[in-house]
Amino acid sequence: xxxxxxxxxxxxxxxxxxxxxxxxxxxxxxxxxxxxxxxxxxxxxxxxxxxxxxxxxxxxxxxxxxxxxxxxxxxxxxxxxxxxxxxxxxxxxxxxxxxxxxxxxxxxxxxxxxxxxxxxxxxxxxxxxxxxxxxxxxxxxxxxxxxxxxxxxxxxxxxxxxxxxxxxxxxxxxxxxxxxxxxxxxxxxxxxxxxxxxxxxxxxxxxxxxxxxxxxxxxxxxxxxxxxxxxxxxxxxxxxxxxxxxxxxxx
Length: 251
Prior knowledge:
Strand content: 15-25%
Structural class: alpha/beta
CATH class of the largest domain: Alpha Beta
CATH architecture of the largest domain: 3-Layer(aba) Sandwich
Keywords: DNA-binding, Repressor, Transcription, Transcription regulation
Distance between the termini: 45 Å
Number of domains: 2
Radius of gyration: 19 Å
Number of strands: 15
Order of helices and strands: HEHHEEHHEHEHEEEHEEEHEEEHE
InterPro entries: Carb_Metab_HTH_regulators (IPR050313), DeoR-like_C (IPR014036), DeoR_HTH (IPR001034), NagB/RpiA_transferase-like (IPR037171), Tscrpt_reg_HTH_DeoR_CS (IPR018356), WH-like_DNA-bd_sf (IPR036388), WH_DNA-bd_sf (IPR036390)
Protein name: DeoR/GlpR family DNA-binding transcription regulator
Domain HTH deoR-type: 3-58
Shape: elongated
GO molecular function: DNA binding
């Protein structure tokens, strides 16, 4: 089998089965594991998959910058944002991550709500400013332009002094084995710090993030309170996520 044919087969299997085990595929095709690993490495470099120990998982298409992500799964993110906003109760301290879904949460908050919203995203803070009864706390640091969020030691230090009721965590990969992941190490560190300062962490995940993985782990799937996924998510996907030990709900 030619290299291009093997790579096409790998991508087809990933789409159909959700993972590749290098040893099994090598045996099936009668080739060496080194050959399969080389194919996986080259496909990973092209952004087509995410390598993991022993094989590969689908790469998240949500790792593009904010401008790119604004055009992905728009209707789903509106519905998820509305669902997230409805979870916020008066008087709570809520951490709102950066990203396009977090912006939808901000836009759907009840204008009469009195609460404290904490964010490390300038875009989210500006959107929240339209709600006159909200107390808005910004965590400052180095601006990571790719996601338009502040990252670094200053953000993590400020997070250490928080006690939040709820954290809406944004990620690019939601996978029962690979956990909750994102594409930047510093951003993942900030998300971990915020997660540890909240009584509950909720992930609002549009469909392109489900059963996909990115390079940097934030936390195992079972460590968050719940994952909210789009209505109409396939039963197979729901079952796989729930097998990761997390509560999965739809709006």
